[in-house]
Amino acid sequence: MRLTIERATEGDAETIALMLGEIERYYGGAYAVPDVKQVRHALFGPQPTAIVLLARDGVQVVGLASVCFLWPAAGADTSLYLKELYVRETYRLRGVARKLMIAVHCEARSAGCSRVEWTADRGNPAAVALYAALGVEPHEGKIFYRSQM
Predict the structure, then answer these.
(1) Percent of residues in the chain assigned helix, strand, coil, to nearest 5
(2) If exposure means fewest CB atoms within 10 Å of the residue's CB, which of 41, 59, 124, 145 is most exposed?
């Protein structure tokens, strides 16, 4: 596996739309591919709402991380919020999610964020195990994670 991780570009909008449909199915919804125009506008329009990092094995996209900035975090600090971390089924348990998490933290450091925050479903033991293996402790109440920069 030749894994690379890079920011998505406008040319990736169709692939991202397909993966959003896969994510919906993964969480038990009906598989429906969002409108590519909507994805383009959200990510590459005049006011982008998120950054998407794509994991590729060669040219094939095998995973994604979608992040956005939150402000204020603590005082006037900014945090990076991980909204979605997804790895296609045939690439799970091969280190892709871990490498995406490293890239998310690098993105946060580069942007001057003080931390990365995210949530996980209690019914997703693989995600909970990944975050535990990364050494991040859940907050009480919800499973909510925060790692300091």
Answers:
(1) 35, 30, 35
(2) 59
Q: How far apart are CA 13 and CA 121, in angstroms?
A: 26
Strand order across the beta sheet in which 79-87 lies? 3-7, 51-57, 60-70, 79-87, 115-119, 144-148
Domains of the chain: 3-148 (3.40.630.30)
Q: Which two tokens stand for residue 119?
A: 């949530």
pLDDT tens digits, one per residue of 41-88: 999 999 999 999 999 999 999 999 999 999 998 889 999 999 999 999
Is the pTM higher than 0.70? The answer reads yes
Q: Label the pairing between strands 79-87 and 60-70.
A: antiparallel
Q: Is the pLDDT of residue 140 over 80?
A: no
